[in-house]
Amino acid sequence: MKRFVIGYGTGRCGTKSLAQFLNKQEGFDVTHEGVALGWYPLFTDSEKQLEAFASRNSAVIGDIAFYWIHYLDRILRKYKNAKAINIVRDDDEVIESFWSYKSEIRDKINLGGFYGYPFDSEECSKDAIAKTVKRYRFLETEAKKFYPCSIITLKTEDLNDRNKLHKLLNLIYGVEKDWDITPVKVNTVEQVLASKNAHKTERLFNTRRS
User: Fold this and answer.
1) Using only C-alpha atoms, what is the Rg of the chain?
2) How many Å apart are CA 167 and CA 172, to the nearest integer?
3) Is the distance from CB of 198 to CB of 190 less than 8 angstroms?
4) Distance CA 111, CA 168 (A)
5) Domains in the chain, start-ordered, CATH in brackets?
6) Vertex 177 angle, CA 172 and 183, to 5°
7) How does residue 109 score in pLDDT terms, banded at 50, 70 and 90?
8) Could you report the per-residue pLDDT of 127-179, keeping only the tens digit for each?
9) How far apart are CA 16 and CA 9, in angstroms?
10) β strands within the chain, DSSP E
11) Residue 21 contacts by C-beta under 8 Å, 6 or more apart in sequence?
């Protein structure tokens, strides 16, 4: 029997890492932002896209992306064995990551979105990003109320935990299996900052030497 798994989160929370981890499993066909769904269902040809998604031929098919928060009902009602993974990262880390991720993100915010992600304000500030994250948290809480048995909450750091990853795969697959699990290496804010500081120190050292 074909099984479905969809994942969602604020963005900058490990959705890509989660998709890569799941896609490495035998019989899994899981993409990252691989279904052409827009943030606003009313302006998306969602039925056509969802049909194409469901027609993929693997034991477990899935997609991980921020926009799935608006399409949970379509999948979880239609496919009773479907599971949804809500991947959650600390709010402050999400905000910092959005703020520092590539210099052009600030231009994207001013244009009203980042690769289709609608920030609540065109203002270029961390407060504007924080408002969007807060709204997404509200949607996550409401979704969990409607589908408490179908939604699995996964913290970003859990991608480094073999036991939690093993349990996650069993829940998706529906039966116990001896999975060969390699934890996903997820950078924390501290690691990113340490790396940046190390590069700065190295550049300063090389400048002084020259």
Assistant:
1) 19
2) 9
3) no
4) 38
5) 3-90+136-209 (3.40.50)
6) 70
7) low
8) 888 999 999 999 999 999 999 999 999 999 999 999 999 999 999 999 999 99
9) 10
10) 3-8, 28-32, 60-64, 83-88, 151-155
11) 159, 165, 184
CA–CA distance, 34 with 53 (Å, rounded to integer): 9
Six token digits for residue 165: 């990853």
Which residue is associated with the tokens 């691989």?
A: 34
How far apart are alpha carbons 200 and 46 in whole angstroms? 46
44 HSE (CA, 13 A, CB side): 16
Q: Is 64 helix (H, G, I), strand (E, B) or coil?
A: strand
Terminal Cα distance for the chain, rounded? 65
Closest among 157, 4, 189, 17 to 88, alpha carbons compared: 157
Contact 5, 67 (CB under 8 A): no
- The three-state secondary structure class of 81 is coil
Q: Six-digit token pair at 142? A: 């409401």
For residue 158, give both structure tokens.
């859990």
